[in-house]
User: What shape does this take?
Amino acid sequence: MGAIRDQAERLFNGDIATRQSHPLTPTGEYEEVADGVMFYRWFANVTAVKTREGLAMIDTGAYFNQSATLELVRKFSAERVSNVIYTHGHVDHACGTPAILEEARSRNLARPRIVGQKNVAARFDRYKRTQGYNNVINTRQFSRPSSFPGEYVYPDTYFDNQLNVVAGDHKFECHHARGETDDHCWVFIAQRKVLCTGDLVIWAAPNAGNPQKAQRYAREWAAALRAMAKLNAEVLLPGHGYPVFGATRIRRVLNDTADYLQSLYDQTIAMMNAGATLDEVIHSVKPPGNLIDKPYLQPIYDEPEFIVRNIWRLEGGWYDGVASNLKPATETARAREIATLAGGVDKLVARALEKLGAGDLAIAAHLADWAVAAAPADASAHAARAKIYQARADGEISTMAHGIFRSAALESARSAGIELPDDKRNF
Assistant: This one.
């Protein structure tokens, strides 16, 4: 048993937790997981397949390590890259292509065909328009400076719902499925019984809610997972994390993940139809009890509450059901009124720290935010806010929540002129 297969086994059996082996950790491991199919365990995974036409690659990795990715591929095979298939246009999956094209040019080889779902082009166009915003949110999410790319290698072959990419005697069945993105596709290599899911499977609770990113599609995502579960694949290669081996396990992972998403969707829609507010929905809807302990559905990146918010946004718009929030006063005006009622900003700060001491971090954070909004130059308010949000960040499991809370803590620490301990979290 190879190192990747061994680690996958231990994760599936719960011998190691996904928090210890986070699916976003780029280990650089690689292993032939089926005849002629090499899997690369990178920040976002990459797959290379030997065909009679050359190498077919499913995803090309991230922009920041593209040369290293190509180096690893070349340890597997020196054959030219004849086909590239993007599972979707996220920059950690579709931005290793420039290194491949440069190698082809330098070796005087034909450029590979690049295949993507038709919405990939619109995604790349949007990324160009919002490069600065993406730098801001990625810096906040991952607690480290981001350098988001400004140029992209667009596909030259687009498809809408389904396309068979033929390379020699291999057929790569590409199926569009709205899920984490609107340009997503999953790829089935029938000859090898290998299923490449992209980010429809990531060894964690589905990234269907991400509070800082574009719309996600929980209901259609669940349907795609169920379609994949019928294929009888023997190797599942996810967008992040380790493979899943064995047809029975693969069906379980796909159907469990589908049930997880479908349950959140159905509960949310039922409460919306009954006239509930967003606040009532996000504090009531929970994942199915029989799935919350599954090792491949842990909320270590995204969270169920965020998925519920995304379902509300997709199916119901942005109004949350609270009339005063339709055309609200500014945050500053509201905070000053609250400070006046409390008897001053110092009272808000004292109460925030009292709530922190009692372990009520959510209320402590609200109080600290009001104090800082009411008195943006108050160093004591910022010091309290930094302390509270650092405590919140330390207590979070998901990358999303940890990154946003840590960013708030750092923001107030700078304003207060204090230093926070280094962040020990990788993701």
